[in-house]
């Protein structure tokens, strides 16, 4: 099956990824490319969407492209900045609005006969976010929707499949945005909506078989969703030629190493568990600075992985679970450094390993990775796991890390996480965990005065981890879990709950 696709050109809008998400929800594959690095057009490309932008088309250095690459050749939809660019480069006029329009607006008139506006009600709510407005359009531009304050809310260029809209159909506040995108992608571009998790698995497995042949691949499993799905997919393609390595770095959750290893084996993966706890504890000895701890763990991981990979004779590929947002951000309009946090483990392993890289999930968003995992039969226990940082409990133990502290925190964390699962709260929070604080507090137990450790519990709701709110867990639950921790974990006499949002705080404490 050749994959039909929509090309989305990114001019830097905060909503560009959302356009891609919405198109894919229509079961149509799409790719985002920066406006200044347009790929060669193939027959698979069925239409083009021009995104919004924080820039103004009136600026001398405004992002621009040669629109003749697409116009009259492929259906074209300009969104916000994209629409303004279409209008301006055709002889229309774009001016600064008296006030920046941001938020909900209602369409007034809508041209029902327009293919783009089919099924869109007049008075439909849309989401506006613009400082400039198209004030005049050339004679062959037909206005197909207006609002009270924006006369050119949508236009169609006569005799060509070129459209522009001032509002953002990709934002859920545009209540019929999905209908509009369906009109464009399916009716106007003619995409057949056959891109599904099943079709992705089928075509990716075939591609992997062709690409990898009888070659051997090594892949580091972390217990998380991405590496697990990547491994299962590659395994489906090449079976035992995929060698997985799961390293116990000593800062995993309680029983995680044995539990996860077991479930990987049940899945039929060729996986080797490597107990490297001591090596990691040695590397962490005396380190208190969070970045130093991260670096020590990263470096030790590479050493252990490299050693293990060398034991696999003739291995030539490194499998990775990189997903699409990492890829988009590394080639974004703003450049790689603007968006990638230094602590996120993008970039893989060092050059000296001389392995070619295979990343079968690098076109998928997180929820699509889960859907593919489901298709591949991965258990919910793996697919529904909370995110867990690569440096694990080491960045939840504030200050220096010792095996004794790890053990205390593992016990606390397990009581918290199991409590969340027992009470049906686990799937309602995005991420949860416990922090071991570098302070001791006074308490009483029986007749004895105690002077012991304090732990902080953290649970957040979030969509992508970039922003987060503290989870409003029921008081009764917090009371029970606090009692349980203090009664059962020796060395802890106080539990606090973190009620900070991100920003200004972060999810982890280090
Ligand atoms: P913060 O603390 O920045 O965390 O709000 C956002 C998300 O990233 C995870 N995180 C990490 N993941 N290596 C990782 O692989 C790290 O060093 C790291 N630090 C934070 C964090 O758990 C949350 O999901």
UniProtKB/TrEMBL annotation:
It is an enzyme of class 6 (ligase). GO terms for cellular component: cytosol. Signal peptide: none annotated. Residues 195-385 form the GMPS ATP-PPase domain. CDD domains: GATase1_GMP_Synthase (cd01742), GMP_synthase_C (cd01997). Keywords: ATP-binding, Glutamine amidotransferase, GMP biosynthesis, Ligase, Nucleotide-binding, Purine biosynthesis. GO terms for molecular function: ATP binding; GMP synthase activity. Its EC number is 6.3.5.2. ATP binds at residues 222-228. It catalyses: XMP + L-glutamine + ATP + H2O = GMP + L-glutamate + AMP + diphosphate + 2 H(+). The keyword Glycoprotein does not apply. Pathway: Purine metabolism; GMP biosynthesis; GMP from XMP (L-Gln route): step 1/1. HAMAP family: GMP_synthase (MF_00344). Catalyzes the synthesis of GMP from XMP. Homodimer. This is GMP synthase [glutamine-hydrolyzing].
